[in-house]
Amino acid sequence: MAETTTEYTARDFLHPRYWPDWLALAFLRLVALLPLPLIAAVGAVLGELFYYLIPRRRHIATTNIRACFPELSPRAQRRLVRAHFRSFAQAALATPISWWGSENRMKRLVRTPGKEHFDRALAEKQPVILLVAHFVAIEVAGMVLAPDYFMIDMYKRPKNLFFDWLIRTRRTRFVPRHGGLLIERREGIKPVIRGLRKGGSFYYLSDQDQGRDGAVFAPFFGVPAATLTALSRLTQLTGAVVIPCFARQRPWGQGYELIFQPPLEHFPSDDVLADTTRMNKVIEDAVRTMPDQYFWSHRRFKTRPEGEAPFY
Length: 312
Hints:
Layout: H1 19-31, H2 36-53, H3 55-68, H4 74-100, H5 103-109, E1 110-111, H6 115-123, E2 128-132, H7 138-142, E3 151-155, H8 161-171, H9 175-178, E4 180-184, H10 190-197, E5 201-205, E6 215-220, E7 223-228, H11 230-238, E8 241-249, E9 256-260, H12 272-289
Parallel strand pairs: 1-9, 2-5, 2-8, 3-4, 3-5
Antiparallel strand pairs: 6-7, 8-9
Helix pairs in contact: 2-4, 3-4
């Protein structure tokens, strides 16, 4: 989705130990050629299998959903967990489309309701932070912006160097048109600030538990969640406008939506906790519209306030 210095080339991965990775790449490349309804059907079956075969992730998702939707019966909570596994597998299997699909195909598959809010802010020369959350379709839907905009993206480098190279090269495939930045998380926010000041737009995922550093405990579905305060600080430093932007997977291979909401008004305030709480509430409201598509298998409540028992 953005520009970065690729540290490796394909020649660095010719050793036989990387041959299984190349086979995996070939499989992904073939998946990218399949029609989306077929990917969705296969993904639904895989999701049901994952529900039974990955008990640790099932436990995490069940614990999260039980805490966030206490009003649901145990049976309804189980149905939501299973629906989440299906949605997750469908989106994961479709990820190769975002890596190899043509620009025309991407734009056919992804609708962008509300994008006038984004375009208006850019026309007014405002730096833009897209407030994104971990919905299953963030990879596929988000890539639709890359051909037309200078995007700033942040990612966590995987341990497998081959897949780090693959992610970097695939996410940056549209960079020569408009520039952009792909920033490894450990580089911090300074490259983000520079990119915003150069006219880039930051595709910012703010809803993972990354520990206590740079975080406060703000409610998420009524549960105290360690939440980074970077959105408030970045907005103060750059004068950026914050536009909530959420990815939706439409049912059974009908495509995706990247939904842009109006910019947040009177943000940031002089209260970081209030800003962070507001951010979580915006994400929570979006989750309620498509609860099966949020990353419930992530340990969102891993870090606990002092004195609280482990959540999982």
